[in-house]
Write a structure and sequence with these properties.
This is 3-carboxy-cis,cis-muconate cycloisomerase. By secondary structure, the protein is mostly helical. Helices cover about 50% and strands about 5% of the residues. Strand 7 (about 525-530) and strand 8 (about 535) form a beta hairpin.
């Protein structure tokens, strides 16, 4: 049945174009209603720091459900941004309660102050949710790496079998990228600043109290205090875009490997819950990896738009900051959805060790030609050893024999017991198991992995000349306070005054993570021997042997 339907209903975005984020926590946290609430939070905080009583009134009125988001969006076309119609509606709603308090709505601010601040609030909330899923992914990968520390498989370079490696080392590499993404997001999250500069970034409307008002405003919102208004100094948005692009790429690497290793002819991995096909009943598709891969291809291009907005003219530009809104939201949604999919994928990944061993043996020992050269070189010289092994590998491939047999047929080569040992590729893993141990011991020396959702939030209204109560139904977006610390980009940023919380690591990571030198915890899925090296434990993983 085909129907044109109600135009208003047809304008709704249900996520049909983007299943990777559909139904994810980040989708709700970045929806139109969430953005509307962030705009209202920004306006309410500005009122609270200027007048206590008016701030309470504005805060009580500033609930997204009281306002018509669609109407605001349609009226925004007249002025180019949603703040202009929102301020008119908010001022009218406040006047109904107390006409004297209406004058404190939007007092001293410009539209960009409110939009930028709301985007930072929205981003902070979205990044917290994404970080939680990245932490889940990291823990699941840590368990996989420990459990498969010495599980042999073929290492592949330029699509071909190269030398033996272990699945534990592959999983440890995935985990390393995920932790790198977490550290980068934590740095950016900690530096997300409030925006308050007034009409042209001079704070003229606040008289001599401008800098103090900015400090109180940032503290009220739990955002960083900028050294300068950043209307045309777009470091925060550019940094966030770059961190999101890195996160998408990190997850994309994991997905790319899962897609290759889950091919029918390879069969070394499988998603625990595969997706079906509309045409082929036998299919069990790697859907989570597919969705992650799709997100990874989109976010870098989106980040380029955000970086392009750095080239902004004058004191406040036309078009540069407007161009950021939708791309930033899309990047947050794609990475948040990909992180949720990655956590589910890694927690439910099926590792088929029998197929790994079978595939490793497929070349009949040719993956050990490098080792054969090392064994022969002390007896024949490296150049001669390489020529002999190259000839033996060619003969083995042509005749369908194994490398050891082909080497034994060469009368010029010495009969060494080490050559016979080359029949078992799984016995030649190099330092792969040790490298897994090194990766799993990653701690503060490389950047503590933050637990953003575990930090204590500062109370709303705890700072500024007119601290007010939190919104009755809206949790504050607060941030932990670590005192003055060097910032990045537009200048030194420090946490708004009046709140305290856990200190930061040397990399500025937010929240409580592992102590200096401690590894990311594995939830009991890996054990540790007396020598400090993680030892395998099945950790409840699905595995076929």
């Amino acid at each position: 049945m085909t129907s044109t339907g109600d135009p208003e209903a047809l304008a709704e975005d249900s996520g049909l174009f983007s299943p990777v984020r559909a139904g994810s926590p980040v989708e709700a946290a970045t929806g139109d209603r969430a953005f509307l609430q962030a705009l209202l939070d920004a306006e309410a905080a500005l009122a609270r720091v200027q007048d206590t009583a008016a701030g309470r009134t504005v805060t009580a009125v500033a609930r997204a459900e009281r306002f018509d988001a669609r109407s605001i969006a349609l009226r925004a076309r007249a002025g180019g941004n949603p703040v202009i119609p929102l301020v008119a509606d908010l001022r009218a709603a406040v006047a109904e309660r107390d006409p004297a308090h209406a004058e404190f709505v939007h007092r001293g601010a410009t539209s960009q102050d409110i939009v930028d601040t709301a985007l930072m609030l929205l981003s902070a909330r979205a990044v917290d949710l994404t970080a939680a899923d990245l932490e889940r992914t990291g823990r699941a990968l840590g368990a996989l790496a420990a459990a498969h520390r010495s599980t042999p498989m073929a290492g592949r370079t330029l699509t071909q079998h190269a030398v033996p490696t272990t699945f534990g080392l592959k999983a440890a590499g995935w985990r390393e990228l995920v932790l790198d993404a977490l550290v980068r997001l934590a740095r950016v999250r900690d530096a997300l600043p409030a925006q308050l500069g007034g009409a042209a970034g001079t704070l003229a409307a606040f008289g001599g109290t401008g800098p103090a008002t900015v400090s109180a405003y940032a503290g009220e919102l739990g955002l960083a205090e900028p050294l300068l208004p950043w209307h045309v100094l777009r470091t925060p948005v550019a940094d966030l875009g770059a961190a999101l692009a890195f996160g998408a790429g990190a997850l994309g690497k994991l997905a790319a490997d899962v897609l290759v290793l889950s091919r029918t002819e390879v069969g070394e991995l499988a998603e625990g819950t595969g997706g079906g096909s509309s045409a082929m009943p036998h299919k069990s598709n790697p859907v989570r990896a597919t969705l992650i891969a799709a997100a990874a291809r989109q976010v870098p291009a989106i980040a380029a738009i955000l970086l392009g907005s750095l080239a902004a003219e004058d004191e406040r530009p036309a078009g540069a900051w407007h161009a950021e809104w939708q791309p930033l939201r899309e990047a947050l949604r794609l990475v948040g959805g990909a992180a949720a999919a990655a956590a589910a994928l890694c927690e439910d990944l099926e590792v088929r060790t029998d197929r790994m061993r079978r595939n490793l043996a497929a070349t009949r020992g040719l993956v050990l030609t490098e080792r054969a050269v090392e064994v022969l070189a002390p007896q024949t010289g490296r150049a001669a050893a390489r020529r002999a092994v190259t000839d033996a590998a060619r003969r083995a491939a042509e005749r369908g024999t194994d490398l050891v047999t082909a080497l034994a047929e060469d009368p010029a080569l010495p009969a060494l017991p080490e050559l016979a040992a080359l029949s078992d590729a799984s016995a030649h893993l190099g330092s792969a198991p040790v490298l897994v141990d090194r990766a799993l011991a990653r701690g503060l020396a490389r950047g503590t992995v933050p637990v953003l959702g575990a930090v204590r939030r500062p109370e709303r209204g705890a700072s500024g000349p007119a601290g007010g109560a939190p919104h009755p139904e809206q949790g504050g977006p607060g941030r932990p306070d670590d005192g003055d610390e060097p910032g990045r980009g537009t200048g030194e940023r420090r946490r708004g005054a009046g709140a305290s919380g856990p200190g930061r690591g040397e990399h500025g990571g937010a929240g409580a993570g592992p102590a200096d030198g401690e590894p990311l915890p594995y939830d009991g899925r890996a054990t540790t021997a007396d020598d400090g090296a993680p030892r395998p434990d099945d950790g409840g993983r699905r595995e076929t042997a």
